[in-house]
Amino acid sequence: MNTCIAHLICVSSRIPNRIVPRPRLMPQYVRWKRCISVILRAIVVGLLASAVAVEAQVLPFRIYTHKDGLPSDQITAVLQDSRGFLWIGTSEGVSRFDGRLFTNFSVRDGLGIGQVNQIIESMKSPGTIYLALAGGGVTKYAGGAFTTRQLDSSFISNYVMSIVEDSLGDFWCTTSAGLYRFNDSRSTRIIEKLNARFFDAADSIVLYRTRRRNEISHPLVDDPAWHLENVAGMPRRGITCSYVDRERVLWIGTAWEGLWKLADHDLVSFPIRSSEPGHYNYSPAVADRGSHLWAISGDGLWEYWREGTRAWHAYLHPGTSRNSHGWLDGVAIDSSGMLWAVYTGGWLTAFRLSREERGPARLERTIEFSPLPEGATYTNRDPLAYAFDADGHLLYALPDGGIAVYNVRPVPRLLRNLGKQEGIDMGALFALTVDRDGAIWAGGYGDGVVSVASNGSSRRYLTGDGLPEMAIRSICVDGNGHVWVGTRRSGIAVLRGKKFESISVLDGLISNSVWSLAEDESGHMWAGTSVGLQAIDETTLKPLPPWPGRSGNWTGKSGVTPRGELWWHESGVAFRISDYPEPARNVVPPPVYITGVSVNGREETLSDNPTTSYEQNNWMIRFVGLSMKDPDGVKYRYTLGTTDGGWSSPINERSVTLGALAPGAYTFMVEAINADGVRSERPARYSFSINPPYWMTSWFLGTAFVIFGTLLYTLYRFRLRKIVELERLRTAIATDLHDDIGTSLTRIALYADASLREYPDVGVNADEGDRNDPREWLRDIGVISRGLVDAMNDIVWAVDPKNDSFESVLIRMKTLAARMFDAKGIDYDIHIGEDLSAVALPIRERRQFFLVFKEAVNNVIKHARATRVDLSIHRAGPMLWLEVRDNGAGFRESALRAGNGLRNMRDRAVSLGGECTIESTPGYGTKVSFKMTIPKMPAGLFA
């Protein structure tokens, strides 16, 4: 064992070796080399010194073997590269470790041979790894590929034991055939043979040159040997190498037991058996004034103490496991520093502690008595609750639920019994303590909390006072006088006023079953729960995140020594001690890297800004953040945007799936956050693009735009041509109607008038109004012909394209009305709204509107006998109004003969979606109102 530890200290002094070509720098370099060697040795000794001379102490190593993914349990070399990855050399190849997963490389991947003797990273080319192989020369790893270099032709010359890089970028190797120097172009043997001492410490050599010769020295030759004995928890045999990484994690390689990792240097553990036959262990451990810890086990009373700053010692005091009254069930310290052992039969034994300069205390038995009343025994359970007040008085829970108060010095004497009269009538007490004012606080299985003041007054706290439940398991009073209560299944209750405040798993507590409470000097209250130990901030009452190594198992009693060490008892498992209640914060930013990409389930190479089709839009990106101290505590957050925002919530997964991404350019960024909340110095980035489908590309859109524009222009030209043709046709129709039909009708009327003048005697003897009178025929022909001419003029006017505007309609209406009213000598007023010039009506609406107007004016001329007419055309929002008001004779519509005039006006209004109303009173004139909705004309090309 001593040889293994000495070898560990020796090889752990490995540092990057350099060749310095200038002789004048050699002495300073050698001194620097020796100093670094001593410092590295001191680091390892400091990390392991806690194991010195401690029987059964266990350091919290994490052991990795082939079952965890290593290619072999024979570890030969360890190195952390500049990126943060850990490289492990084995007898079956090399493995790269990211804290969770091992990536293994062997002969199949380009290694010259499986066994790796040493690993270094090039200082000139960071990221390039060199492997010294046992019979395979030197292998270089760069750019994801291995390249093997043979130093010479023989096997022994390629059996490389160590390799170093000098300041010029050349490499020096110790082999079975001697010392070699090589670079990219050649290799040269410098020394043919090396002594055994050199072989044993080849990774710790200092190599320097002078003008006359090459010299090799070993920096530890003149140093005394280091012998560490009894290091429990360390590998027992075959330590091959050691390494301390940037997070102060210690790695130890072994020949048969895999890779050992020590991340928590401040935590030690002592396996311990549960007390028998005790089952709850109300007080299985306690700290005395000298910060010695006392813990019970089935073997008896253990004493633990620390020598110096790191080394913990343990000693089992013989003859303490039981006495004639029962098994050892608990331990306590009174105010005078006397140790009390509690046994299952209800008896207590007091020991006076005698200290030696070094070593365990001597126990002097002084008092042995039972606080139970005569005839009382514990039949179904062990004693659970007992405590000492500031005066050294013993408070002891009785089987009937009361409390016996004893003055134990010089001879135990009962002072009083606290029972129902004082409010303590609980079936069984489980928690008992005394505050700084002398008040007693007690809690039972299901009876809540009772406080008894020093003056004898008492109060019981129930659920109505804020207690989350009545089953109490622990009570502690903090430095501010606040009472903390641990419950069986409902968390913690804190009395900071008149009512309790609750803390539970909903607030971040790891378990609602709280078995112990202990306060440290930094303002933390420690809760021992069913799943481990957790700290709560006494000011905010917020539980802090569990610390590694302090949670996971059922935790009974816990406490803090006067020197500040945190200790706790894991029932049936171990007694644990942490040098510092709060572990040192890991301030090393975890580097983060993109490790792989797959698209639509197919693995892709990590190329720079790849581009895929729009169908390949389901991306999975894998990444890793490197924190060897607590890899499971690393979280990640990511974004597809910029660093200004859009970051996700922290996640534990080391991959993200981005599904159904839209076409575009993306930059994925991810950063790692270690267990202490420290972020990566810079996020890892990965840019990629997804091409849009062809129908979304610029060339397609441009082509489609040109085609659409051409089609639109063609339609425009076609419509324009049709409009021009229609205009020409309308002009031709208007001309034909005017020139042919209008002229013919005018001639007919003229012929009828001429016939009456030419033949005045025709039908002289006929009676007036006789329909057989030829004169009546001729008159009707003239009237009808002139009426047809007027109607034809209206049609011609409406068909003529020159009259398509509503303004031309208004002008014709005004002209017609003025001509007809002037002809009849009627006084009139025509009002046309100024905003009507912007109204656009289709040809049908224009004609119907005009005909309604003409019919109304004709009725005034023919029937009204009016002397005054008011005509108004105006607009009200979307409605067009026409009003014709006269002061004529008026009429009753029911008395009129059936005719077409009024009906035609109403029919035309209905056809236009409008309304025509006629208001008339005999002797008071008539008002005709017509309104219609102005239709929306198609805009643009097709208007």
Please, could you describe this protein's structure?
This protein is α+β, with helices and mostly antiparallel strands. It folds into five domains: 2-254, Methylamine Dehydrogenase, Chain H (7 Propeller); 272-384, no CATH class; 592-693, Immunoglobulins (Immunoglobulin-like, Sandwich), CATH 2.60.40.10; 697-803; 804-943, Heat Shock Protein 90. The strands form 15 sheets. The protein has a five-stranded antiparallel β-sheet, with no helix packed on it. α7 (843-864) packs antiparallel against α8 (901-911). The chain is elongated, with a radius of gyration of 54 Å.
Question: In a few lines, what is going on in this structure?
Answer:
The chain has 943 residues and is an alpha+beta fold. The strands form 15 sheets. The chain has a five-stranded antiparallel β-sheet, with no helix packed on it. Strands 55-56-57-59-58 form a five-stranded mixed β-sheet.
CATH architecture of the largest domain: 7 Propeller
Amount of beta strand = 25-35%
At the first level of CATH, the class of the largest domain is Mainly Beta
* Computed structural class: alpha+beta
Radius of gyration over all CA atoms, rounded: 54 Å
Number of domains: 5
End-to-end distance, in Å? 104 Å
Number of strands: 59
Runs in which pLDDT lies below 50 for 5 or more consecutive residues are: 1-55, 195-231, 939-943
Instruction: Output the CATH topology of the largest domain.
Output: Methylamine Dehydrogenase, Chain H
List descriptors:
single chain; 943 residues; alpha+beta; Methylamine Dehydrogenase, Chain H; Immunoglobulin-like; 5 domains; five-stranded mixed beta sheet; 8 helices; elongated; disordered C terminus
